[in-house]
């Protein structure tokens, strides 16, 4: 047996040498594609959340569908615009067929939504008294509206306001669609009663046709009134023009075109005679001819002016007569066709009674509820996984810390109920014993080859991570194998010291020292570990801890025991634990499954790295308090295969 070198009494322990820092940070993110296997594994582990929220959402949707939702029925009628006039009717400037342009289609759709048409339909069908369409408060839309009194709705004093509210309610139920590439409109009014929807949809189609006929008849009447007024004005103008022409004709010197032509011939002949006069012509005769020529030219000029004026008046009279006749003809045509106006549209097909409601859509709502609930469940599971600060699998622990995981321990009974189970791990057929045996093998493989009577320090970052129970289980297992095991309970810093006087060790007399320490070791039963309370020794109490005294106790343990297990205080609470490291051959750091925070583990590993001695004390991790039932529920048993290779493997999926 090679004893650990002990420092002289009163001397400080060996100075710690620089130690290599473990990989305390998570590995750098690797940019890679999401593998389908990883995604499938995550969805399988989160199936509880996904299925639970999907079923909850489906139940809420079903409650809304069958209890709160109001089914609405919609009977659809079809109306088509006509682009050619009926045979036998002439198109005039006041009534023309549709051409089928997009502007006309949009205009007719707005006509179907107009207040005038909807109000006409509401009054024709007496919807003012219908509780489904009459103005009412918003809470009366619920199926429980019968619980409210009839006068719960505020009465509107203004008839226009009531009509507008009625039209708005009717417009909310109106369905209108133009079939692309055609002149066909599909229209319907939804209602809680399928027969009412059928009646209102057909009534709306007929009202639209009647509205078209009435509007065209009104246009024809307005055109006839305007034509009558315009014809009367033109008749008066024609009469005045004819009277003016008659007066002008009576007062004119113009007789006829023939007389004007004869007068022109006389003037020409007289001019020729004047041109042939010679020296033998008397002056009196020449003067008489010139006087006659002047008189004839003056008469000709006067008759020409009168002739031109009469022609202008006659043209005006003819123009007025033609315009009057045109307007009179248009008036007669409009009067003749006043009762033969067509709508410009036709009902292509009347609505039929709907067999099932169009809303709510049960299958769609249930499908979306299941999908949305499943997505919410997956999102919650992902957020829980992303916000988890603890370590779940051994691979995560090794990747985070850079240290090996020597063992995985399930949730032991002593950890679950707080009992002092010293005998845990003694049943060779139990899972606990198998896991303790794996931990013991991992420690033996991690110990240096030259380590004899090794001293193993067991610690954790914070209290409550199962350190004490693990030490006791491991000690009971080793003692059951025939080894002499000493458990040094140094984790008494949180308890009050005993009232008895502590034992004071004197390093000069080795025999007396061994006897005194042996008396403090309590032998519980045959093949059981020895236990030594550190708080019962002066120099190891929390108020007077001395490394020299601790070295004496370690020397005693190595001389008389095969292995020493030290139950040390948590690293982040008691820093004296670091002063024990130079005397230990191995450090066992416990990590609670999914509970130990990564930041606390990183701080603990940093402290251990600074506190290791020059001989390089090895460190190993133990993943503790693993809940097999939780793993079985998430379906991640592959990462914890050793925990399911027992009689309880039926819990594994």
From TrEMBL:
Pfam families: GNVR. The chain crosses the membrane at residues 49-73, 364-383. Residues 310-384 form the Tyrosine-protein kinase G-rich domain. It comes from the Bacteria. Keywords: Membrane, Transmembrane, Transmembrane helix. InterPro entries: Bact_polysacc_biosynth/exp, GNVR, P-loop_NTPase. This is Tyrosine-protein kinase G-rich domain-containing protein. It comes from Pseudogemmobacter faecipullorum.
């Amino acid at each position: 047996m090679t004893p650990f070198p002990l420092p002289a009494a009163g001397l400080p322990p060996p100075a710690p040498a620089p130690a290599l820092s473990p990989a305390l940070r998570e590995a750098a993110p690797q940019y890679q594609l999401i593998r389908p296997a990883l995604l499938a594994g995550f969805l399988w582990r989160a199936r509880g959340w996904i299925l639970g929220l999907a079923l909850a959402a489906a139940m809420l949707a079903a409650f809304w569908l069958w209890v709160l939702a109001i089914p609405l029925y919609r009977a659809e009628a079809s109306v088509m615009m006509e682009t050619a006039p009926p045979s036998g009717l002439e198109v005039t400037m006041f009534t023309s067929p549709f051409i089928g342009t997009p502007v006309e289609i949009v205009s007719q759709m707005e006509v179907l939504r107009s207040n005038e048409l909807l109000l006409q339909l509401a009054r024709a069908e007496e919807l003012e008294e219908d509780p489904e369409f009459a103005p009412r408060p918003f809470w009366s839309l619920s199926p429980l509206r019968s619980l409210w009194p009839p006068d719960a709705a505020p009465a509107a004093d203004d008839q226009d306001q009531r009509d507008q509210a009625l039209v708005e309610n009717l417009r909310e139920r109106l369905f209108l669609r133009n079939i692309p590439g055609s002149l066909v409109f599909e229209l319907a009014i939804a209602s809680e009663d399928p027969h009412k929807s059928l009646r209102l949809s057909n009534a709306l189609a007929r009202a639209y046709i009647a509205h078209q006929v009435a509007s065209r008849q009104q246009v024809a009447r307005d055109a006839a009134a305007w034509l009558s007024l315009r014809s009367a004005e033109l008749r008066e103008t024609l009469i005045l023009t004819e009277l003016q022409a008659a007066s002008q004709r009576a007062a004119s010197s113009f007789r006829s075109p023939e007389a004007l032509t004869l007068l022109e011939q006389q003037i020409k002949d007289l001019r020729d005679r004047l041109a042939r006069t010679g020296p033998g012509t008397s002056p009196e005769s020449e003067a008489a001819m010139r006087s006659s020529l002047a008189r004839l030219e003056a008469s000709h000029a006067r008759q020409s002016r009168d002739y031109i004026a009469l022609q202008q008046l006659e043209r005006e009279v003819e123009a007025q007569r033609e315009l009057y006749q045109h307007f009179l003809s248009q008036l007669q045509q409009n009067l003749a066709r006043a009762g033969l106006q067509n709508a410009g549209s036709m009902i292509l097909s009347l609505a039929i009674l709907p067999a099932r409601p169009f809303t709510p859509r049960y299958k769609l709502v249930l499908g979306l509820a299941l999908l949305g609930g499943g997505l919410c469940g997956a999102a919650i599971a992902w957020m829980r996984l992303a916000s988890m600060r603890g370590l779940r699998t051994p691979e995560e622990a090794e990747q985070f810390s850079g240290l090996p995981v020597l063992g995985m321990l399930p949730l032991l009974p002593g950890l679950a109920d707080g009992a002092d189970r010293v005998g845990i791990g003694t049943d060779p057929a139990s899972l606990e014993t198998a896991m303790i045996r794996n931990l013991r093998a991992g420690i033996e493989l991690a110990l240096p080859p030259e380590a004899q009577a090794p001293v193993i320090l067991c610690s954790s970052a914070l209290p409550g991570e199962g350190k004490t129970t693990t030490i006791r289980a491991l000690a009971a297992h080793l003692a059951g194998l025939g080894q002499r095991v000493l458990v040094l309970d140094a984790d008494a810093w949180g308890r009050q010291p005993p009232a008895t006087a502590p034992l004071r060790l004197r390093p000069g007399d080795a025999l007396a020292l061994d006897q005194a320490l042996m008396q403090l070791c309590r032998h519980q039963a045959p093949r059981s570990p020895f236990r030594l309370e550190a708080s019962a020794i002066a120099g190891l109490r929390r108020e007077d801890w001395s490394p020299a005294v601790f070295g004496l106790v370690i020397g005693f343990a190595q001389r008389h025991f095969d292995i020493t297990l030290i139950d040390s205080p948590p690293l982040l609470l008691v820093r004296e634990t670091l002063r024990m490291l130079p005397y230990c051959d191995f450090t066992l750091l416990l990590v609670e499954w999914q509970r130990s925070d990564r930041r606390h583990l990183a701080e603990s590993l940093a402290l251990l790295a600074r506190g290791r001695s020059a001989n390089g004390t090895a460190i190993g991790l133990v993943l503790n308090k693993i809940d097999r039932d939780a793993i079985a529920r998430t379906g991640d048993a592959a990462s914890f295969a050793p925990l399911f290779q027992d009689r309880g493997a039926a819990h594994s999926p």
